[in-house]
């Protein structure tokens, strides 16, 4: 099904702007500054049942499109990025559909996302591939972006005179990644990333997109947790990141979170919990902070340790990653790669 949106009334436009500009409050755990839990809360909190399951969660399908065709992820690198950083992220995206990765694998995690269907019964695609890329290394829209100016960055990328990104509303996803010296509206205080769709009035097309920021300089203790911990939580030790880059390793789980939700809810009218689309609770929101068996509340769950002491829970093609689990609507609990989700 083509992803499209009609030009409607002024009321509709106002509603869409409300959806875009209003931050989405999620009742799942990340060490946001306003919560300030103590270290014992992190170790022993058990406010949720098995792997985040809850009889109060009512995720349902609202009849909108999901991404059933082969998914292509086009990346916009905004700001200054090092080659090794780009490689970590590219290899993660290429790992989503990999068939030869050692279990527990990123592709095993994606199989839960594939369970979701559209109104015809078609499942979300197995294939997620890396598409074209665009570098915006000179900060074309400055170092402080709003949610609306993010759409202007995407417009610049798809309308550039030299090598513009292709416009593929049906199966293309647009991933805007901001470097560690860029601030985005609500970053660190309420969000580490978000997804939505572009407005034809700004971009010229309706394109599903996500933004994720590198938090290494601004708030690693929030958005790169557990590879960094907030200063206001005494006694809690940060875990070693699997690819030796705290900011980028922290981004990986957020990127996974947003791609899973873009696939299942690209126009914010498909799979989500709650009655108000202004505040949708989606399949990754329901498992925020859960990385392994036993996770719930503010406990991350059981994870794996590599020979060098780094922490991970999934294998990619050539690397290891820490990726949060996603909600399995059909079993009513958070689910990870098959080898860990038993």
UniProtKB/TrEMBL annotation:
Pfam families: Phi_1
GO cellular component terms given for this protein: apoplast
Protein family per UniProt: Belongs to the EXORDIUM family.
Name by which UniProt lists this protein: PROTEIN EXORDIUM-LIKE 3
Keyword terms: Apoplast, Secreted, Signal
Compartments (UniProt record): Secreted, Extracellular space, Apoplast
Endpoints of the signal sequence: 1-28
Xref: InterPro entries: EXORDIUM-like
Organism for this UniProt entry: Salix koriyanagi
PANTHER family with a match to the protein in the record: PROTEIN EXORDIUM-LIKE 3, PROTEIN EXORDIUM-LIKE 5
């Amino acid at each position: 099904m083509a992803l499209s949106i009609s030009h409607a009334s002024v009321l509709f436009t106002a509603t869409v702007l409300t959806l875009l500009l209003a931050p989405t409050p999620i009742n799942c755990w990340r060490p946001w500054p306003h919560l300030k839990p103590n270290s014992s809360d992190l170790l022993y909190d058990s406010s949720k049942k098995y792997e985040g399951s809850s009889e109060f969660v009512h995720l349902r399908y609202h009849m909108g499109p999901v991404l059933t065709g082969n998914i292509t992820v086009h990346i916009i690198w905004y700001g200054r990025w090092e080659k090794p950083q780009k490689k970590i992220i590219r290899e993660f995206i290429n790992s989503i559909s990999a068939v030869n990765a050692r279990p527990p694998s990123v592709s095993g995690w994606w199989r839960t996302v594939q369970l979701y269907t559209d109104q015809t019964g078609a499942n979300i695609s197995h294939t997620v591939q890396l598409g074209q890329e665009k570098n915006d290394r000179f900060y074309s829209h400055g170092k402080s972006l709003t949610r609306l100016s993010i759409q202007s960055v995407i417009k610049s990328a798809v309308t550039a005179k030299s090598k513009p990104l292709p416009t593929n509303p049906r199966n293309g996803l647009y991933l805007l990644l901001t470097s560690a010296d860029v601030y985005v509206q609500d970053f660190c205080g309420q969000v580490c990333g978000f997804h939505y769709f572009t407005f034809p009035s700004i971009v010229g097309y309706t394109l599903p997109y996500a933004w994720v920021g590198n938090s290494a300089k601004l708030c690693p203790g929030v958005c790169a947790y557990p590879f960094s911990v907030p200063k206001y939580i005494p006694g809690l030790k940060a875990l070693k990141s699997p690819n030796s880059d705290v900011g980028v390793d922290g981004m990986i789980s957020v990127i996974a979170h947003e791609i899973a939700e873009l696939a299942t809810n690209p126009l914010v009218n498909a799979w989500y919990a709650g009655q108000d689309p202004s505040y949708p609770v989606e399949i990754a929101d329901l498992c925020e902070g859960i990385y392994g068996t036993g996770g719930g509340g503010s406990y991350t769950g059981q994870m794996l340790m590599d020979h060098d002491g780094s922490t991970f829970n999934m294998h990619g093609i050539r690397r290891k990653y820490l990726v949060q689990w996603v909600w399995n609507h059909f079993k009513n609990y958070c689910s990870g790669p098959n080898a860990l989700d038993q």
